[in-house]
Amino acid sequence: MTFNIYDLTSFNQWVDKTLYDSLPAFWAMIIEMTLIGVAFLLFYALIGLFLVYAERKVCAFIQNRVGPNRVGPYGIFQTIADFIKLLMKELIPINKADKFLFNLAPFIVIIASFMAIAAIPFGLGLHAIDFNIGVFYVMAVSSLGVIGVLLAGWSSNNKYSLIGAMRSGAQIVSYELSVGLSMVTIVILAGSMQLSTIVEAQRDGWFIFTGHVPALIAFLIFIIASTAETNRGPFDLAEAESELTAGYHTEYSGIKFAFFFLAEYMNMFIVASIAATLFWGGWMPLHIGGWAGFNTVMDYIPPFFWYMGKTMVVIFIMMWFKWTFPRLRIDQLLKLEWKYLLPINLFNIILMALIVLLGWHF
Amino acid sequence: MEDLFIISDAIQEEEYIINMGPQHPSTHGVLRFKVSLKGETVLGVEPHCGYIHRGIEKMCERLTYQQVIHLTDRLDYLSAHINNEAVCLLVENALQIEVPERVKYIRTILSELSRLASHQLWWCAFGMDLGALTTYFYGLRDREPILDIFEETTGARLLQSFNCPGGLMNDIHPNFIKRVKDYIVYFRKKLPEYDELLTGNVILQERTNDIGFLTLEDAISYGVTGPSGRASGFACDVRKHHPYSAYDKVEFKEILFDKGDTFHRYKARVEEMWESLKIIEQLIDNIPEGDFVVKMKPIIRLPEGEYYQRVEACRGEFGVYVLSTGDKYPYRVKFRSPNFSNLSAINLLSAGHKIADLVAISGSLDLVIPDIDR
Questions:
Q1: Do residues A122 and A201 share a domain?
Q2: Is B356 close to A240, i.e. CB distance below 8 A?
Q3: Are B233 and B250 in contact (CB under 8 A)?
């Protein structure tokens, strides 16, 4: 077996083969599933911790502040300390709350984001499930989270929570359309819904470059709509701090609040990685036609780092406008979607279809 | 079947009440809005105040005039210096004492610095009300040097108590003039950043334009003064129309708009910061030499009668009414607080708008709660 950081397929196949050779098929499958599950849990926790820290540092940078700098060098252990605090906090029981739904809601939110992460290609051979309907699956699963938000608002017995949840429902139902349609634009260009095929199709040039104007428009719409879908500023109406105190998670404390908090960051990571996969070539290195030397150098950077780098850039953009823009009002939010983004998007799909039919793309 | 329809109608028509406050991020203190909502739309707002009532007016009846100063600080803590000035002017006018020119100049400069600091803090908080959290740190960054100047000269950053009947507690610090001049140069560069970050933002324009109209008639009948009133075209600037201290010696524009919506209340305050800078610039180089205080008797007794003095505080017209029986204590003190009158218009402004607009409107009125409750 060879461990090649640029292509993990052979390593995976070796692990697979060794397990199946030495154990009964059933146990081998159980062990494989456990291994992948543990790997994802670890990755999930690490990314969550890192993103919280990154957001605090980025927002401090934008706001003329230093950010966390006490716990560990440059405050890198701050989020771990915060997490321990959240674990130890009391779970406050709410009077007349619907106990079952109240406890269920954070799990739905976190499971939805956990499921979506399975279909994302992190690198060549670093891909848990390669569906032939990958794009469709990610869309379907990532929108499940809103059920958790609605349940949280409904079961909390708090008017602020209820308003927040209703806002969140209206918002996600509307923006899901734009996210979906901008992804469809790229599916038309790639001719496939399989995420690995979409990445492979961008070997010679990322879709944002090869797809002409429609791909660019689709990218902009995707960034706007996915920010709205993840309930982040300037679309954070569901938790609108200055209006609804904390919106749908006003009544949650301790680890249940941490679940909502973590899910928000993971959703951001998921939409950023989809943006990177669909528009910026996923784990593909940057290649410029004719620059052989440059391309070789780029190839030396392992795919996983390409993937993470691109995702982090998208996340930084999303953080950037969260910390710069004021929040929209609910009617303006819906107006933006139904009167501007959706018509532009529909027109954009026709444009993309024409370009693909006429073969105008690179 | 018919019954079912009636029930569903009843549900549709039902309004529900939400309590914003006394602990709520957007009321900036312990003010309580009892908001009746229909969906997201505000049907009516009922402000409930009194959560931070300290009985300051009653307390003043057992304090000498020098001691009253320390309580007026605690009304509108962001225009502490200006409130003090009102009491001092009242006493000086009642006793017909002419304070030295130097005192007038320094009082005016400190008042305008207070106004700048107050408007900066308002700007931060207004951005935060609309969800732009970064404005908070930009505003505080520029407010900090002003507080440092205050600290150096008056010994306190927020509640200065620097005025006393007859003049000032102390002379200005030797660094004062240089630091103020440096600050003007600094802030003239930084103030355009406020426009870049927030004013020109399309979301802010959408959120504030054509929201919460206050007509000129309503502004006058509700007594909405200060920048909030002037945004509706109510020429109510006491500095301009009834000049006190050194305001008759400076050129400045009274910022007037006639539209009276939330955006123009915002705009009026940002423009006022420019005017404050201008006023300070004209005075800072010409502070005359002289005494900083007129020697007064240790116990001041106002002649029998009623006195009223008004000044332009950061949020509007601040008035002090004193009924004196010739004793060393005032017989009755009444403060006309600008915030109380401004708050009274909130129902008129926000009825029919969304709940998010209520936050923007109450932010644009720039309420300071201790001044409302007194």
A1: yes
A2: yes
A3: no
Is A227 found in the same domain as A185? yes
Fold of B53-342: Cytochrome-c3 Hydrogenase; chain B (1.10.645)
Q: How many A-B residue pairs are in contact by the CB < 8 A criterion?
A: 80
* Judgement on whether residues A205 and A338 belong to the same structural domain of the protein: yes
Among chain B residues, CA nearest to A320: B134
Cα within 13 Å of Cα(A10), Cβ side: 7
Q: What pLDDT score does B50 carry?
A: 85
Q: What's this model's pTM, rounded to 2 decimal places?
A: 0.85
Q: Do A234 and B127 touch (CB under 8 A)?
A: no
B201 touches chain A (CB under 8 A): yes
Instruction: Give the count of domains, chain A.
Output: 2
Q: Considering only CB atoms, which chain B residues are within 8 Å of A240?
A: 131, 356
Last residue of a domain, one of A32, A60, A88: A88
Residue B18 near chain A (CB below 8 Å):
yes
Distance from CA of A245 to the nearest CA of B (A): 6
What one-character DSSP code corresponds to residue A123? B
**B204/A330 Cβ within 8 A:** no
User: Are A84 and A111 members of one domain?
Assistant: no
State the angle between helix axes of A134-142 and A159-190 in degrees (0 to 180), rounded to the nearest 10: 170
Interface of B with A in 37-56 (CB under 8 A): 40
More confident residue, A344 or B11: A344
Whether residue A35 is found in the same domain as residue A157:
no
Integer Cα distance of A72 and B104 in angstroms: 53
Q: Which residues of A touch B137 (CB under 8 A)?
A: 63-65
| Residues B311/B173, Cβ–Cβ less than 8 Å | no
Q: Mean pLDDT of all residues in chain B?
A: 86
**Interchain CB distance below 8 Å, B131 and A163:** no
Q: Which residue of B has its CA nearest to A333?
A: B203
What is the residue range of A81's domain? 1-88
User: What is the reported pLDDT for B1?
Assistant: 45
Instruction: Tell me the shortest Cα–Cα distance from A224 to chain B, in angstroms.
Output: 14
pLDDT in tens, chain A (362 residues): 566 667 777 777 777 788 888 878 888 888 888 888 888 888 888 888 888 898 888 888 888 888 888 888 888 888 888 888 888 888 888 888 788 888 888 888 888 888 888 888 887 777 777 888 888 888 888 888 888 888 888 888 888 888 888 888 888 888 888 888 888 888 888 888 888 888 888 877 777 777 778 888 888 899 888 888 888 878 888 777 777 777 788 888 888 888 888 888 888 888 898 888 888 887 877 777 677 777 777 777 788 888 888 889 989 988 888 888 888 888 888 888 889 989 999 998 888 888 888 876 66
Boundary residue ending a domain (A88, A118, A149): A88
Residue A121 · residue A150 · CB < 8 Å: no
- Using an 8 Å CB-CB cutoff, list chain B residues near A63: 133-134, 136-138
- Domain residue spans of chain B: 53-342
Q: How far apart are the first and last CA of chain B?
A: 56
Cβ contacts of B33 on chain A, cutoff 8 Å = none
Are residues A165 and A296 both part of a single domain? yes
Q: Using a CB–CB cutoff of 8 Å, tell me whether B132 touches chain A.
A: yes
Classify burial at B229, counting beta carbons within 10 Å of its beta carbon; exposed 0-12, middle 13-18, buried 19 or more. buried
Q: Flag if B24 and A64 touch (Cβ within 8 Å).
A: no
Question: Cα separation of B341 and B345, whole Å?
Answer: 7
Asked if the interface predicted TM-score (ipTM) of this complex is over 0.95, the answer is no
**Nearest CA-CA partner of B337 in B315, B354, B358:** B315
